[in-house]
Every structure is written in structure tokens, then in C-alpha cells.
Amino acid sequence: MPIWVLLKPTDMRTKGGYMFPRFRNTGLTIRISKNAALKILLIFGSIFGAFLMTGLLYFRNDVQIIDENEKRIVYTVSDDPYEILRENHITLGAYDRIEFTGFEENVATATLTIERAFDADVLEDGKKTATVHSVDATVAQLLEQAGVELGKYDKVSPSKDTVLEDGQKIAITRAYDVKVTADGKTTTVKCLDNTVSELLKRAGVTLGKNDMVSEELETKITEPTEIKVSRVEIKTETQDKTIPYQTSTVTTNILAIGQSEVRTKGVNGKIRTTTTTTYIDGVKTDVKKTTKVVTKKVDEVIAEGAAIVTPYCKIDDTSIVLKNGRPVDYEYVVSGKATAYTAPAGAYTASGRLAEIGTVAVNPDVIPYGSKLYIVGQYDNICYGYAIAADTGEGMMAGTIPVDVYMGSTEEHYDDACAWGLQYVDIYVVEVGNG
Length: 435
Description:
CATH topology of the largest domain: Barwin-like endoglucanases
Helix content: 10-25%
Strand order of the largest sheet: 25-29-26-28-27-30
Number of strands: 30
Number of helices: 6
Structural class: mainly beta
Radius of gyration: 67 Å
Number of domains: 6
Shape: rod-shaped
CATH architecture of the largest domain: Beta Barrel
């Protein structure tokens, strides 16, 4: 049998921080009987067993195992934490985590801490779809563990960077499909309580000024639906129409027969018709017409003379109707000579009226003061026209002159009086005064 020799302690080998005895084969062979060999083996086995027990006690290590709330001390010659766990029949879950301080010099006991993973449910739209196991893992890591992917618009609670705690759940709210139809094309977009305006933007749909949407822009869409955009085009056409003015004539007593003047100048009117046509998605749906007056027409008025000749007094009393230059209706006529006079500005007549062109002097016993008169030459050669009996004089009171006409107060008026001189006239009393 070969002979093995235990080397001296300085030749002991080290493995993993532990010391083990080394033996060497001497190469010598001793021939002995079977009984002697058995005795030797028993003696050697006893010695080796005693040595081994002594070595185990000498070279053992203390390890404190902390498994959640349970702590215990174990003894081992291994420096492998997983081997230590196997030695002590401690099983790890797939997602459990261990922390091992190792064996350090001058430290009596190593620590092996087990962090047990807890289970957490993953809920999608309120329904459990997966269970994950966490030890200080973030929501993002746990979703990856479960093989759950988030869409761009999905929401998750807690947030992805949150470290999940025992008792918490991961809740995912999935975005749902919303169809947006515009311009004959339907686009499907993801929605999660978005407004119609946001979804239109997401679908790349830009609204025109008059476009219509099936939902209010600020409405939040809370379920799958369809949003329809109707393109609205409004075309407006305008057309102007001229309204010609009408012409009318009136009679004036301050122009001679054959003379006329424009009292009111005629202006053509203009009306504008606006046609508004509405098209929805290219289809004509409504036509409206509105008309407004742009320019109001003004009818032209032409005054045509009715006097025999142009009268001196320019007061046009239209209540006196003339025919062939003479009043049609009157009370009586006084015929005779007519002189003319002037007076300073501001002078008053015998009846108390202010002297002005259109006031004349008469015999109030023949023609009462206040009477409305129309004075025209007997030979149609001259015309004073409208007058009011307001003054008197010696010739009138003597009965030699029935009327003296007032011409004004200036030198030019004095020249007119001189030019008048003495005329033969007919005095038509149109309306008798009461003094």
C-alpha cells in the first residue's frame, strides 16, 4: 500500500479564504497482512476523523442569515452564498435578491441578507392581465418583466420611474381608437380623454373658418367614437342695379311763363343684391339673397313759371293758382294806377308790420290791411306778384292811386322804384284781410 505523509502547516493550501491540509505520496510500498492492513486502516481512519473534526471546528465560519423578519446564525466552510443557502435548505424565488457581505478579516460573522420579492398585479383597463414580482424594481422594469408594452398615449399609475412598494398595483389605462373623417378620408387616432380639438390636431386635420365638426371642439371624448368634419365653402356674389330717378314738375309764381328751374336735382339710386351660396363637402346646400339700398334715388323737381313776366316780389305762395299769369280764384279786383316807394331799413308800415318787399300801401277802406293780393300789369308788361296790404298813403286815401308798392331800402331798390314809375295794374284780392 502507498504511504501518505501530512506536510507541515506552512505548506497548507488556501482556497476561497479557507485553509486545508495538504498530503504527499511518498512513493514507498509496504507489504503487510490483510488483518494488519485493516488495523492500520482503522487506526488511520480514527486519527483522520479526529483530525477532520478538529479541522472543521478550527476552519469553520459564522454566517448570519437574515430572511425577512427571521435571523439565524449558521456555520460553514463555504464562501459561496448560494452554497450556504443550500446547506441550510433555504430556497430562493426567481425574483428574490440576496446581499452577502463576505468574510472579512477581523470580522467574526458574515451577513447574508435575503430580500423576498413581493407579488403585484398588473391591471389593464381595470382587468388583471399579469402578476409581477418586485424587489425595489421600478414600474417600467416590472412592465418589461411582464412583457407589457405601453402605447404612446397609454397612461400608467404609478409613473414608470416609481419604485413599486408592497401592496401597490400597476394600473394601465389603454388609449382607445377614435376615427376622424375629413376630406373623404378616415384616420384612426388614439385617445385618452382628449378634446376634439386635440384629436383633430393629432389626425393632422386643420379647420377652415366655416367648417363644421360633429362635436364641440372643447368636448372631451371618453369612449371610441367617430368625429366628422364637414368642409364648408361660402361663395358670395354681388350685383348692383341702377334705379333711375323720376322727374316731376311744379308751378311757380316767381318765374315767367316759359321759364323753368330745377328745384331738386335728380339722383339715380342703386340697390345691391348679394347672393350667398353655401357648399358642404362640395354639395350646394343653401342659397340666400339679400338686397339693400346703396344709394337712395332722389326724384328731380322742375319748377315751371306761371307769371306773365318775372315778378318783382320773390315770395312764392303756391296757394295762389295762376292761369295765363293771373289768379284763378280771388275775391275781387281793383284796377288803377300803381306807384312805387322805398323806406329805410327797419321802417314800419301803418298797420304795424315791418316794411319789406311784398308789403304794399292801399286804402284800407277799399282793401283791408292783411289782405293777400296778387298785382299784375294791365297790359301784361309788368308784374309785382304776391303782396300783403300793410301800409297806406295820401294818394291811396285820396282815391287817386289804389296801390303804392314797396321796393326795398337800398339805393338799388330806389332805382327799381324809379324804373317802376307809374304803372296801370290789376290788384287781385285773393284773400280779404281783417285789418
